[in-house]
Every structure is written in C-alpha cells, then in structure tokens.
Specification:
The complex is a heterodimer of chains A (250) and B (221).
Chain A: E1 5-6, H1 9-13, E2 21-24, H2 33-42, E3 47-50, H3 67-72, E4 76-81, H4 94-100, E5 105-108, H5 111-123, E6 127-130, E7 144-147, E8 150-156, E9 160-171, E10 176-177, H6 186-192, E11 193-204, E12 223-226, E13 232-237, E14 244-248
Parallel strand pairs in A: 1-12, 2-3, 2-9, 3-4, 4-5, 9-11, 11-12
Antiparallel strand pairs in A: 6-8, 7-8, 9-10, 13-14
Helix pairs in contact in A: 5-6
Chain B: H1 8-16, E1 24-27, E2 46-49, E3 53-59, H2 62-65, E4 77-85, H3 88-96, E5 102-105, E6 109-111, E7 116-117, H4 132-138, E8 142-145, E9 157-158, E10 171-176, E11 179-183, E12 188-193, H5 199-204, E13 210-218
Parallel strand pairs in B: 1-2, 1-5, 5-8, 6-9, 8-10, 12-13
Antiparallel strand pairs in B: 2-3, 3-4, 6-7, 10-11, 11-12
The chains are: A alpha/beta (250), B alpha/beta (221).
C-alpha cells in the first residue's frame, strides 16, 4: 500500500487537474482551510465546488482562503451549495454577481437534500425521494411521486473527484476521528469522493484508535496531512458573521 | 398597560412558552435563537441543530465553548449533559423523519394559507435556503418569528406570499411584535395582541383579514 501520510498540503493537492469536482467539508468547524489555501496556490481552474457555502458565515477572516476566493478569481465553473446568495440583502458576494451575469453555474440545494445527495453518492444509491422543496421553486422540473398520500420529489446522488475534509485525529491508515460539530458534512464527503484528502491535528500509529471510535474508516481516505505550526488551526466567526478570527498552531 | 410593540425578547419568550417538556426543537438563525434564553426552567427541551448537534444549551463565547462546537448559526454553544453528535445527513434525518416537535424560523412573509417565504428576496438571483426548507416541510409544527411590518411599513402577513415560498401550507403559529397569530386559510386568527393595541390597529398593518379569537387577550410574558 502507498503511504497515505504526506508532508505538505501542496503535495496533497498537486495532481488536482483543471475541471475537477471537489467536495468541501465544514460548517464553521471542520473546514479544511489549509487544503483550500494549497489549492489556491496550485492554480487549478474550471472547478466544480460542492459545499454548504463557499463563504462560511458570510465572509472569512482576513487571510483565509475559501471557495469564494476561487470564485472571485474565476477559477470555478460551477457551485452546488445551500447558500448561493446571502439572506441579508445588504451583503453581496462575488458569487452572486457572477451568477447574475451568467458567468458561473450556481445550483441551489436545500441543505438536508445536499447532505443526503452526498450520503447517497457514498452509499451507491443513485437517487432518492424527499418531501423537502415540494411546492417550491426547488421542485420545478423534478419527478414527483406520491407515497402513502404524501408528495415527494426525486433528487440525485452526488459524487466527486476529490473531497477536502478536516478531522481532529487520524491514524496512519487514514481512520479519522472528529471533535464535536467538526463532523458535519465530512464523513459523507469522504465516502463520496474518489480521492479524499484529510487535514488533521494529530496523526497517531495504526492501532491507536479503538475501531469502535472511528468516525470515517480509512478505506475512504487516500491522503493525510498534519496541520503544522504555521497553518490555520481554527477559525471562528463573530455574531455578525462577517468578521472572524483565525488561530494558527504556533 | 402602556401601548407598545413587543420587543424581540418578549416575542421569543412568548413563543418559547409553547415548548413542552421533552420536545425536540430546532431554532433557526436570527431571532429564533433568542428562544433558547426563555425556555421554562421546569421543562427539558432538547435543542437540535442541523449540523448534527443534539442537546445544546446556551450560546457562549469561543473561550467558554471551545473551537469545535457551534449551532446552525455558527454561534459557539455549550452542550447539555445529555448531548450527542451526529453527522449532517443524520442531523437532517431527524428532521425529515418528522421527529422535530417544532421548528422556529424567521421569515420575510407569511400568508393566511400557511405558506411562508424566507430564502430569496425580490429581484435577486440565487438565495440562501440553508436548512429552512427541510425543517419547514418536515417538522411537526412550524412557528414563524418575525416583525409584523417591513422597515418601510408594508405588511408581512399577507393573503398570498409575493416572494418564492419555502414551503406550502405548513405554518402553525406566527409571532410578531403585534401579537400571536394562526393562519386559518382565509384569515389570520389573532390569539394574543400586544399591550394596548386594538384589532383595528392590527388589521390596518396587515394585508390579510385578521379575526379576533373568542378568547383574545393581551400577550403576557
């Protein structure tokens, strides 16, 4: 087996080609900020990004690369998100402007449907029915079907070329453990990508994690990078969600 | 009592009084999160967040809560002793399976037929659905917490929503700064009114017909 532990984020994202699709984990905690920064340096274009939002909290702390950074640099062809515009009319993102100009494809998906589409992708299920969105714009053009007197719409699974996940601890086999709400989309995305790259705070020897305590089995994880002294460790977002702070490891 | 529109805290407190012991409750981003400060002490209410957090408590600082735990509004929160964590798909499985006793959501508009709109503003492309459509479609009850009128004075309680809706015919209760309302199909029933306000005054600020409940009283919090 190829060793999974790599020494740098740049190495971990080095082979991502133009046109790749990437699942981005995170919901505040659990966001792989360092892999995003490396992807930004790497230069890949024409990307498809699938995430809850490309602007966690509406805006990122200074110096933090998010999906919105790549969108603003026009390196993204398509996004699949639960937020393509802010619910606050006064806040506009680069994504909104490009979407209005027709220069990016922006698919807006209810968050639970997004999570389940990714889960289905990782579970080998091509599509599923959900009641979410029936009677709204989201249901337009989709197959409707009645089960036990209730109407549902058909939603299709999502898989991708890569997933960027952030965990608390990994072993050298790639088994992952998350801390609290760091988990969010990460286990779903790890299972739905052909190549999952994890950034973690700690890498321990194989056998150190109780099998019962593994959240993402290592069979879903192809590459692991430890967060280093100068890397982003945590971000937090203030109540205004526009300003925030990032802490580095050192 | 002095005539006054209800404050945000009063609105949140009145709605939180509806939460029953043992209920699983989801509080949407914005004003609904205030409800967590007013849950009656003798009742155990289990707060659920879409990101897979079951049993969170009060909103805290990062210093108190640590960097690993937030609610759906990305606010750091403390956990209750009975808390548990699941992933995002399971967080929504709880919602879709109908286990939420109530979802409390903010809105731009609510209509007398039980529709409401909260994800897309007029004239914009795209929007922010977040978890609202799942909660709206699947919770056992949907409570709306919002200001009665827009900043410009136009009504938000309408005959029909003008904005793209979040879900059709799902709203159970609407709490505004003028009172507590129930959508009844062809009108809103006014169950409780802000102190000092009359039915006519409320009607003048509402697009849809408003009918007083037989036992109409002032909001008490």
């Amino acid at each position: 087996m190829e060793p999974k532990v790599l020494s740098s984020f740049d190495e971990a994202v080095g082979d991502i080609p133009d046109g790749a699709s990437i699942l981005l984990g995170g919901f505040g905690p659990g966001t792989a900020h360092n892999l995003m920064a490396a992807l930004h340096r790497q230069g890949a274009r024409d990307l498809t990004l699938i995430a809850n939002t490309t602007s966690p909290g509406g805006g990122a702390p200074q110096g933090i690369v998010t999906g919105t950074t790549l969108v603003a640099e026009r390196r993204v062809r398509k996004v699949v998100l639960a937020f393509t515009a802010s619910t606050h009319p006064s806040r506009r993102s680069p994504l909104e402007g490009l979407n209005e100009a027709g220069e990016i494809e922006a698919e807006l998906v209810p968050q639970g449907t997004l999570a389940e589409r990714i889960r289905a992708g990782g579970a080998g299920i091509p599509a599923f029915y959900t009641p979410t969105g029936v009677g709204t714009e989201v249901a337009e053009g989709k197959e409707h079907r009645v089960f036990n007197g209730r109407t549902y719409i058909l939603e299709q699974a999502i898989t991708a070329d890569y997933a960027f996940v952030r965990a608390w601890r990994a072993d050298e086999f790639g088994n992952l453990v998350y801390r609290l709400s760091q988990r969010n989309f990460n286990p779903l995305m790890a299972a739905a990508a052909r190549c999952t790259i994890a950034e973690v705070e700690e890498i321990v020897p194989i056998g150190s994690i109780d099998p019962d305590h593994v959240h993402t089995p290592g069979i879903y994880v192809q590459r692991i990078v430890k967060i280093g002294a100068d890397d982003v460790l945590h971000t937090s977002f203030g109540p205004s969600s526009v300003t925030g702070s990032a802490t580095r490891r050192a | 009592m002095k005539k006054a529109r209800l404050t945000r805290d009063m609105m949140a407190a009145r709605l939180a009084a509806e939460f029953q012991d043992g209920w699983i409750v989801n509080l949407g981003v914005g004003m609904p999160t205030l409800c967590s400060d007013f849950i009656p002490a003798e009742r155990t209410v289990i707060l659920h967040s879409e990101n897979g957090v079951i049993g969170y408590g009060r909103i805290a600082t990062v210093a108190e809560a640590g960097p690993y735990i937030v609610n759906a509004g990305l606010q750091p929160v403390l956990l209750r002793p009975f808390a548990s964590i699941m992933h995002h798909a399971d967080g929504f499985g709880v919602i879709r399976a109908g286990r939420l006793h109530v979802g409390v959501l903010g809105a731009y508009e609510a209509a007398m037929n039980g529709d409401f709109a909260n994800w897309k503003t007029a004239g914009r492309k795209g929007g922010g659905i977040g978890g609202a459509m799942d909660i709206a479609a699947c919770a056992q009850r949907v409570f709306i917490l919002m200001d009665h009128t827009q900043r410009t004075g136009e009504p938000r309680l309408l005959r029909r929503c003008t904005l793209p809706i979040t879900a059709a015919g799902v709203v159970t209760l609407v709490m505004t700064d003028l009172g507590l309302f129930e959508p009844k199909g062809d009108h809103f029933r006014l169950r409780e009114v802000a102190p000092g306000f009359t039915l006519d005054e409320v009607q003048a600020l509402t697009d849809a017909p408003v009918v007083a409940a037989p036992d109409l009283r002032e909001v008490q919090v």
